[in-house]
Amino acid sequence: TMKKNTLLSVVFALVVTGLMAQSEIPQQLQKGNLLLAVTSSISMDGSWGSEVFGIGFSNTKTKQGSDPAEDYYRCTVWNLLPRGGYFVIDNLAVGLEFLVSGYSEKHDDGYDTWKESTFGAGPFIRYYYPLDRLYPFGEVEMLIGTNKESYNDNDYKYNIFLVGGYLGVAVPLGERVTFDIKTGYAHLTSSHKGSEMEDYDHKYLTGGIVIAMGFSIYLPMP
To answer: How many Cα atoms sit within 13 Å of 68 on the Cβ side?
Structure first.
């Protein structure tokens, strides 16, 4: 018990020391300000649901024996996550985030075409720990929405649920703008209820490391 209390005392002392060493709260992170931002993430292409996480382009080729490699599938994937928040206390912003993403895959002969579009919305919480020239932060988010798939003339719809946790840093570009970069883990669940033509339900689980970048604007409350 004594060792446990000593350990807790040391941890508490380190936390207090860190808080005392924290720089003066920047004006843009103070209570009452608005946060407007948009981010996009680096591609996680190759897993189901990667359109939610990625931005990029890929070209798949095939090779048989000594034959030259030939184009087979061309893929594009993108996403945008605009958000708006409010600083309920100094350094802590709470708000609503939206997800708009897409994925397309087309066979080189032009016959097979696969497209996906995803829309979602949900809350986020971001806490900053500003230093002199950088604003490190921690963030959690949750998104609920729908995903639509189209394969040639067939359409399928899924319900999606995403949760993620991140650590990042905001780099000031002026008094009201920062460039943000963050990394963390996100987990996506996509589910589809079977219809009269299908006798079973579908559920896909996708998760992995996400790296996202974007810009934030900090505005005083009108």
So the answer is: 2
